Amino acid sequence: MTANDPSPNHLQLTRDGQLRHFLTLDGLGRELLTDILDTADSFIEVGERSIKKVPLLRGRTVVNLFFESSTRTRSTFELAAKRLSADVLNLDINTSATSKGESLSDTLLNLEAMASDMFVVRHSQSGAPHFIAESVTPGVAIINAGDGRHAHPTQAMLDMLTIRQHKGRFEGLKVAIVGDVLHSRVARSQIRALNELGAEEVRVIAPGTLLPRDVEDLGCTVEYDMARGMKDLDVVIMLRLQKERMEGALLPSEREFYRLYGLNQEKLALARPDCIVMHPGPINRGVEIESAVADGPQSVILNQVTNGIAIRMAVMSMAMGGQMAERQQKQTDSEGHRA
Amino acid sequence: MSGSQQDNSTSLVITGGTLFDAHGQLTDNPGLLVRDGKIAAVGSEAQQAGVARSVDASGCVISPGFVDLCCNLREPGNGQKGNIASETRAAAHGGFTTVCASPETSPVNDSSAVTHLIREGAATRGVVNVLPVGAITRGLEGDLLSDMAGLKNAGCVAVGNGSRGVRNARILRRCMAYAQTFDLTVMFSPENQALAADGYAHDGQVATRLGLLGIPEVAETAAVMEMLLLAEETGVRLHLSQLSCGRSVEMLAEARKRGIQVTADVAMHQLVYTEDALAGFDSRFHVRPPLRSESDRQALLAGVREGVIDAIVSQHQPHDSAAKQAPLPATEPGLSSIESVLSLGLGLVASGELEMPDLLSALTLGPSRVLGREWALAEGVAADLCIFDPKGHWVPSPSTLVSAGHHAPRFGCELPGLMKLTLVGGRTAWQ
Q1: What CATH number does the domain containing A49 carry?
Q2: N or C end of chain A, less CB within 10 A?
Q3: Is the ipTM of this complex over 0.85?
Q4: Is the pTM value of this prediction over 0.95?
Q5: Which residues on chain B are in Cβ contact (under 8 Å) with A1?
Q6: What is the side-by-side strand order in the sheet with B11-15?
Q7: Residue A152 labeled ligand binder
């Protein structure tokens, strides 16, 4: 017996299947994911113009609510919102309200009073964007910019866009995700996206201490040995390793980790010759990846950053579109009711 | 017992309906006469006596009052979450006539002074019997022994660790040896703190997908094994509270076979829900121990059916709304459950997972045996009973829930089992 609808779709989709929040890739079908990628493709062209703006979000207010610090993700969200002509407010809640003891609910009530149209949320606790989507006034779109270990759906989608640009397809691809899968919201969203888009195999390569329990149930195979894991790969995604991981007895040392799971040219040579190298950043050179590889010809790491803006523009405009459609629908409903 | 709103302690006759009898069977009610707070007569004698009031229980089940081995009344100290008056009324609404009060109050019930405070509150403002459980260590910190002899003299029926884990086996061993000296039952919720660490969800599929911090099964099973071995060595009477793992049930059965004095309970929500309840980040189902897998749920149900698990408890944990209004990891654990226990149980009866006599035994006979108390509705025993209509329905809502906590497992939907009357010592505690 389950207590509630386990699919998050009643929350993030409108009645006719349009995006109105973007919380997780769970439950989103291939068609919608492809739609996001196609929309992003059309925005890439905007970034190449001399005047990089479209008026899709003109007059809208987007609030970047970052409860956890971030430079890159926040700046790409900010740029994306500005290229869509929105007004942007950046709030680092980290250092303001919550440190004064205000609860998240109270912070939200105050922000709602500022008549915002969209919250871009990053939070250290899994499920925080769900909680916010459930508790704020309808009409405010919530975009998940990373929550705890749960999900980082825009990062995963920009990775998918990068893969599609280089490989042209997902069918038949063998993709490996290497490193700290346990703590990674990025890996969870990537595994989900790759499965939905039809990749042939998703492999996770890590020691047992950095893998969550029953990780195979997410839709991947497990490989402890990196040399074996690199075989036949089309894409290798390296994850960032936090320095704190030595303290909880998850790893003995950075050196041993680099020796076993760090990506160098020698290991990369075991993959297919056209294998691309990705990393969600920020990179720890010499911990999970060698500089020669990070800056090498197979690396598409900087490509990912550029695509990040286009994906965020796509998701923001689609979610706002869903909210508008819903508002109109409700208006029509209530008018029909009155008549 | 006092504090009920109407005084009808003179006499009362209950006719009709089905009686959960002294043999643990459901039989036609031969008639019950309640006089001076006791069951004065059963059978034809009861029908003939001239009485002030009669209750027609046709279509209903008459059961000995339910006994809850684990309930949080939040008094003293947590008035914003509930108090003895509100939570014992909620208990009566749930058909419970006796509740064991968890030692996790503020201050912790680790001294006779706090025990007296709870008993006094129960005598003046409570509507059901309240049996305090003392803290086994001072402040439930797990370091120093509490005054167990003093707690027993003050009226504690057992000593326990509330929902706090145990981190030191040497202290645990001494706690057991000391409790055994005074013939005190120890009630332990088994959780190895080092293994549970910062977790708050079952370490399984759902936690992996949602990125929640897991509490592995071994956090419980390692603690169960340690406690069973220590109980065997010290000879203490051990009661394991709120089991959540199938493996724990196996170990329990095995220990019983070897002659270890051990009993156990499970919370009703563990028999109904699994880790899937967290799938939408629903913070109500943030409970401790966490809801585990479907196979664990099946094993716990089998444990109840086979009598390996003696009792079903509410593990009632009322909260103010702020405690649950946050992202799931930041919320406080626990359900406001005592009013829904019977309804959830009847759901299991309806789905064929539990027989009605098994359900009622686990709410009456089983927990009474753990406490060494009488339980059957027989001549001369206290008139603690409840009458419910298993075919009637109610909808949990802010207006129907009596508890100060509104985070009930089911909310706003129709549930089976309408409580008609709860008598405690012959007085009406719920109607």
Answers
A1: 3.40.50.1370
A2: C
A3: yes
A4: no
A5: 272-274, 347
A6: B38-42, B32-35, B11-15, B53-56
A7: yes
